[in-house]
Amino acid sequence: xxxxxxxxxxxxxxxxxxxxxxxxxxxxxxxxxDDHVALRGFAGTRMGIDELAAPFLRAGWRVAGSYRFxxxxxxxxxxAHPEAGRPKVFISELRVAECSDGxxxxxxxxxxxxxxxxxxxxxxSVSFAEVEALRRESExxxxxxxxxxxxxxxxxxxxALRGFAxxxxxxxWVVAQGFALNPAGGVIKGSAAQGARxxxxxxx
Length: 204
Known about the structure:
Layout: H1 2-14, H2 16-27, E1 34-42, H3 49-58, E2 62-69, E3 74-80, E4 88-94, H4 101-111, H5 128-137, H6 139-147, E5 151-156, H7 167-176, E6 188-191, E7 195-198
Parallel strand pairs: 1-4
Antiparallel strand pairs: 1-5, 2-3, 3-4, 6-7
């Protein structure tokens, strides 16, 4: 799908280590399969779940699950495609109406600057002070403000790799290549029962 390719190309311009890691796995003879891509938005705006999901639904993806995160004021939906080999798409949105008046005003101002046709990238201007104010209330809102309509992350389907028996072994290989993992919440998030993932530390 052209949109997924465009999201990936944009993602690796900002996170080049992702391309390097995939290249390293390919050099080992691995076939890298995408598990899912994640997008973030704002509920009640042109960047809500329904709006972000629309192009994927038109391309054959179907809603496969819905989730609500009360404490973080997030709703999410994951989409799956009936054809094998297509990644899942995980789309979340901040329930802006439940946030402070200040956050709501900043979101309205930013989204009001978007062009008629949504495009990958940050379609608004925002100051460092505004991003910091959002971060104090919601790191999620601050991330979207700073980055705009972009993939938050792409993930590798570890079960499709032949040379790594478990996620910990893949983590060891990634670190051995000179890359740092995000330690927040542990380098492996989740559990065997919940499903688990590892995240690159791209703070640098």
